[in-house]
Amino acid sequence: MCSEFEASPFGQAEWDAAVERLGGSVYMTWDWLRTWWAFYGRGCTLRLFWFEKDGEVVGLLPLYIQCVGPGPLGIRVARLVGANIPPKVFDPPMHPDFVASCLAMAWGRLQQECDVLSLGPVSEAREGWRRTITAPDEMGSPSPFKAAQAEVHTLFPLLPSYEQYVGALGKNEQKNRRKYELRLLRKEYPVRLVTWTQPGPELERAFERFINLHSRQWRAEGLPGHFGAWPRGAEYNRSLVAAHSTRGRVRIMELWAGEEHIGGQYAFAHGDRWYWELPARAPDERWSRFSLGPTVLMLLIAEAIREGCKWVEGGLGHYEYKLRLGAREYPVWVLRFAKRGAGPTARRLLARMIQGALRVGYHKLWYRRIQPRLSERWKRPQWSLWLHYDY
């Protein structure tokens, strides 16, 4: 499947330089897109849009088209490469002044071969997307898309030093951080904190330890954890780590108490920010009094500050503990463009009915309520059919 990337009129160096110039995320880099495509692009059609103005690149839009639904009654949906296994705050790299015009041009091409363009999640934290969401008239009148708020995501704005960062937290949280950040642990155990960044067998082994620790944590709660929730989750992430480590983007942090691996973080570094993928901590009751979750997150923040980063991308969802530790929340949106006409409208209505049935019957009832109560042999990653309809 990667051959379609290799056949594109521009290569990795050119694409990544444009991503960096436009302030794009690590999820829009060539390695991320190509790795995702190798795992999840089967049966899909790749469309890479490159927008220029007066010889300067002003936007990139990597998309795939997939048929969703039963045969001739199905619809063809265009989505961002990477969506939605798993969902991220993608924010395709575009100059803020040209987001609307780039989207209008892309949809003008795409509606010749698909029924729906589902674009997101994108964040209000990015000026260009915020302007497009709040001022849709820039796209023309009437606006050819509808914006639906999906949820929120968190960003940690970093300060020049870790001491300044902790000093900006609330008084209670300052007290907790100074109490728990390894001081109690060091009274009872020799403590080591290691950050792995260089490609090679040591990084690979560190990532395998992270997978094991993360999975142990979630199995203790009857859940599969990230690597069990998504199709081929562990294999896919191993490939991501292998691809990005050669470019110095991978960050695997390990916290050891004596000979026991008790905490970890998995992140990527790109541009002026870290992209926090997953935490892990030992589920054993004897470690609970050390506040490992917030402690290991603050260790990640300290390391990102040490590297000179300005932000940590904290992922989707509302979490009170992240806000207590200095994060800010921003709405994220999905922009949906739909082809007009009786036929496309009828097919979309059928797709929405199937989507609703899968959301309630499969995702909410079976996957979230029933499956966690079953033995391990009955637990499976999320059904690919449901993921195709979740657009």
From TrEMBL:
GO molecular function: transferase activity
Superkingdom classification of source: Bacteria
Keywords tagged on the record: Transferase
Pfam family of the protein (one): Acetyltransf_6
Coiled coil: none
Presence of the UniProt keyword Transferase in the record: yes
Cross-referenced InterPro entries: Acyl_CoA_acyltransferase, BioF2-like_GNAT_dom
Domain BioF2-like acetyltransferase: 175-322
Name this polypeptide is given: GNAT family N-acetyltransferase
Gene source species: Limisphaera ngatamarikiensis
Organism ancestry: Bacteria, Pseudomonadati, Verrucomicrobiota, Verrucomicrobiia, Limisphaerales
